[in-house]
Amino acid sequence: MFQIDQNLLIDIVEEPKTLHRGVEYFTNDRVKSLRFYKDTMTFVANVKGAYLYEVEVDFDFQGKFMDANCTCPAYGEYWGYCKHIVAVLLKIKEKDRLGNFQVKHREENQAKVILEYFRIQQDKHRVPLQMEVTYEVEGASYITLRIGEDRLYVVRSMKEFIEKIHRNEKISFGKNFIFDPLIHRFRKRDEKIIELIEELYEHEKTLERNFYYKKRESLFKGKRVELTDKALKRFLGLLQSQAPTSEEGIKVKIFNNEYNNIKIYEGQIPLSFHLDQQEENMFFKMEYEGPLIPLVKDGEYFFTKDGICRIGEEIRRDLLPFYQMLGDNPSSKIPIDKEEQEAFLSEVYPVIKGLGRVETNKKLDERINTAPLKIEVYFDRSDNKITADVRFLYGTTTIYPFNPNEGEKEKSNRVVLRDIQGERRALSFFENRDFKVKNNKIYLDNEDSIYALVYEDLEELQKLGEVYYSEDFKAIEIKRVSSFQGAFRLNLEENLLEFHFDIEDVEEDELREVFKSLRQKKKYYRLKNGSFIPLEEKALMDIGELMDRLDIVEKDFHNKAIKIPKSKALYIDDIINEKGLDFVKRHKDFKRFVENVKEYQEVQYPLPETLKGILRNYQLQGFQWLKSLSQYGLGGILADDMGLGKTLQVLTYLVSEGEEKGGAPSLVIAPTSLVYNWVAEIEKFTPQLKAIAIVGSKSERVEKIEALHGYDVVVTSYPLMRRDGELYEQYSFRCCILDEAQHIKNPFSQNAKAVKDIKAEYYFALTGTPIENSLTELWSIFDFVMPGYLSSHHRFKNRFEKPIVGENDKAALRDLGRMIRPFILRRMKKDVLLDLPEKIESKIIGDLTTEQKKLYVAYLKKIKGELQEEIKENGFEKSQIKILAALTRLRQICCHPALFMEDYRGGSGKLEILQEIIEDTLKGGHRMLLFSQFTSMLKIIRPVLEELGIDYHYLDGATPMEERGYLVKSFNEGKGKIFLISLKAGGTGLNLTGADTVIHFDPWWNPAIEDQASDRAYRMGQKNKVHVMKLITKGTIEEKIFKLQEKKKEMINAVIQPGETLLNKMSQKELMELFEISV
């Protein structure tokens, strides 16, 4: 279940040695009391190091590693995880394989958590110990320890000391001092030294357990422990970096000589050199003061008169040949043979100048040529490789470093004093770039390395010396941005955009390959002539990113042009402006198209005479927007807030289209309840449009469909479109309009498939909530109005939905917003209806009755256990139906337990509150809409109203369409005080401005549906302030749903400001939290 493998362990540590130590800790059974908290997918363990450390590891519910922390000092000192965490992960892997986790729940282990906390706190109050470390050199390196509180005692057996620390056992140092790991504590520096000794001990024990291990002498020798070179370096590094004060040093014993307060420092050892020329003889002598003893084989640390000196790597390398002299008589002279003198002066003398002070006599000074180093490099190209001829010049002397047999020397026979450091820098340049040596020449035949050299590195080489190029080498050109040309134009003949892209001297077949390389995120493309196109230049990367966003592939290239749907023009224009792609031109027709769609308010399409003076200003703008889009063959989503008159804006557009173009009818597809509403609105506002409703029996519908061409507007419903789809196949409409387009939010539904088969010139969708549950719903509506604009559903999910919803990717969210913005017109009532009265929203919280509460708690305990078993057995995904049923039952208990218990007599707290609200509201002369998801709840409320003598109207899904119209008209004329409405049946399409109070008896998962229902009263024509009340039972699932809704709105609001349904998007953890007892 838990995803722990070698790759994870390698990724989470900073250095391989941390991984190895973690493996050793695991192997040595250092992980204690591993506990697993299933409710939070958290492991807690204690790991035995110098102290007992606590490790906590978190996984997600799919078993993927999330995070870990440890109480050890090393955890916070570097970015990677520590060895203790590695050991715990290995322990988890082992236990997971065996299937024997010790499962605990947080609440059951609170006592242990508290106990462990105080144990950790006790560390701070333990008795601090003094510890003296002595470093001894006697052939090998050793350390010894003395510890104590006031007086220090020798640790006589280092091995026993470590073993007892492991076991938390006491160690007696005589009658006056007993070391107890549970009482005493060491300083941080000392703790790290003990950890180092522990690791040596554990490593030795691990080797002993190995079958192939050949026994050797132990590192633990009584009171001393021997340090390997690697361990010694760590030890000295600890002393250097962890000393409590700059004044504190250590005790050192070297071959029975004792030195106190020795410090570790970085620098050079105190050396001086003498070179004497006497006639034809030359002598070399090295001198130093005091002891000078190398402590490790590679010379990184020396013991000197000033302390222990750590020497840098470059100086260490140069000092290596002189190590042997350090043990000899430092005052003795070393003769240099005559034939070696020139080489010694040329190559050794410059080096020793960097190691210490050098003294020479006058005769030697006259022999030395001190001309400065000049570097020359000659590049050439041969076949698929490049060659380099490197030369070092000192005055008239030329040295060929890769061909020692060549060279020119000055005639005076003076010895060149070579600049070894400068030569090394030049040679390092070629070594670091994979140059190979053959026949005394260097060459480069790797394409990546050639590109890096030509594109990136030559400038660096030019700082080192003079660089010359042959004509063949110069032909390796780097194509810069000035070589690129691009342009967008509108192809009016094909009604498409064309993107023309060209790179100077690059043929079309290679241009395709360039874009293929761009899409593959390659660093460069090499042309047939050997030149390079750097693909990581910002301009080209931006073009590549744009092509990727437009779903363009190399096969789309034709004659150096790419054809793109013109709907992408506004998105492209935004990208060009944002990225500053100055080399991409936009033709006049492209610019005009973008301007007209963006600035639709500036393009004045004539308003039909019969509608002048009827439309509000924002409705006029909506009409202009519809006209602008259809003028260019584009579709869109009119997503105005409920009650802003979307129908009137569309009818105005249809009249205008009919007056200008005549011809084919337009098709409106609406929910069943709104079919006659459309016909009524047409008769009221645009009687010049001849409309027909496709309803009735099959034969009646066939007859009406066959007569379509005699009408301007055809209205049908989603259910009938599913049945009659084939009858419409032979027709092509001027415009197809979806009302309440959320009916096609599921792209795989029959509704969506049926409407997307309709043939029309233009497509528009009307909806107040283009997103309810997921971004896929938005994609489905766009797939109707502009098929392909948001790519395939699979591509849309990977590019937008998963990053935005799963990863909170703000860049993807901005990019989606930029794509859809021109094609969604969304206005809110508060912004455009300034004369609309105020809407007040409030939450009324009440308690369950005593009997109701007992029932709620009992059911909650029962169902929680059942669901946990269900999820354990079948998995979270396959348990959704049972979870939904349980949540529904809890919501019903909150409303009234009688919804599912026939013999229940305990009353309902919420119903009691409702009666109070009704009485107060009606006394104030107000009229009310009362919504519930449960029709059975409305039926419980009806007799309560009848008993109170309150006149009311009732509407649910079973109410016939004709009766709905009568009830709405009757209520708006003032008949009835309360309108009881089923949320799903009456939440849309009704105009009930006769009410000024809205009550939601039970909260629905989707607050947008609730808003739609509230807007039956809060819409144009409302003259009174509207009060919306939501009844919530305290401490129950209803209150939790309300809080989750508030918390989760941000993402979808950023796209289009809709509501969202939470149930399908909640994690297992969030869903199970709904079943926690809070009442």
TrEMBL record:
<dbReference type="InterPro" id="IPR014001">
    <property type="entry name" value="Helicase_ATP-bd"/>
</dbReference>
<keyword id="KW-0067">ATP-binding</keyword>
<dbReference type="InterPro" id="IPR049730">
    <property type="entry name" value="SNF2/RAD54-like_C"/>
</dbReference>
<dbReference type="Pfam" id="PF00271">
    <property type="entry name" value="Helicase_C"/>
</dbReference>
<dbReference type="InterPro" id="IPR001650">
    <property type="entry name" value="Helicase_C-like"/>
</dbReference>
<keyword id="KW-0347">Helicase</keyword>
<feature type="domain" description="Helicase ATP-binding">
    <location>
        <begin position="627"/>
        <end position="788"/>
    </location>
</feature>
<dbReference type="InterPro" id="IPR007527">
    <property type="entry name" value="Znf_SWIM"/>
</dbReference>
<keyword id="KW-0378">Hydrolase</keyword>
<keyword id="KW-0547">Nucleotide-binding</keyword>
<dbReference type="InterPro" id="IPR038718">
    <property type="entry name" value="SNF2-like_sf"/>
</dbReference>
<dbReference type="Pfam" id="PF00176">
    <property type="entry name" value="SNF2-rel_dom"/>
</dbReference>
<dbReference type="GO" id="GO:0016787">
    <property type="term" value="F:hydrolase activity"/>
</dbReference>
<dbReference type="InterPro" id="IPR027417">
    <property type="entry name" value="P-loop_NTPase"/>
</dbReference>
<dbReference type="Pfam" id="PF04434">
    <property type="entry name" value="SWIM"/>
</dbReference>
<keyword id="KW-0863">Zinc-finger</keyword>
<feature type="domain" description="SWIM-type">
    <location>
        <begin position="55"/>
        <end position="93"/>
    </location>
</feature>
<dbReference type="Pfam" id="PF08455">
    <property type="entry name" value="SNF2_assoc"/>
</dbReference>
<dbReference type="InterPro" id="IPR013663">
    <property type="entry name" value="Helicase_SWF/SNF/SWI_bac"/>
</dbReference>
<protein>
    <submittedName>
        <fullName>Superfamily II DNA or RNA helicase, SNF2 family</fullName>
    </submittedName>
</protein>
<dbReference type="GO" id="GO:0004386">
    <property type="term" value="F:helicase activity"/>
</dbReference>
<keyword id="KW-0479">Metal-binding</keyword>
<keyword id="KW-0862">Zinc</keyword>
<dbReference type="GO" id="GO:0008270">
    <property type="term" value="F:zinc ion binding"/>
</dbReference>
<dbReference type="GO" id="GO:0005524">
    <property type="term" value="F:ATP binding"/>
</dbReference>
<dbReference type="InterPro" id="IPR000330">
    <property type="entry name" value="SNF2_N"/>
</dbReference>
<feature type="domain" description="Helicase C-terminal">
    <location>
        <begin position="913"/>
        <end position="1067"/>
    </location>
</feature>
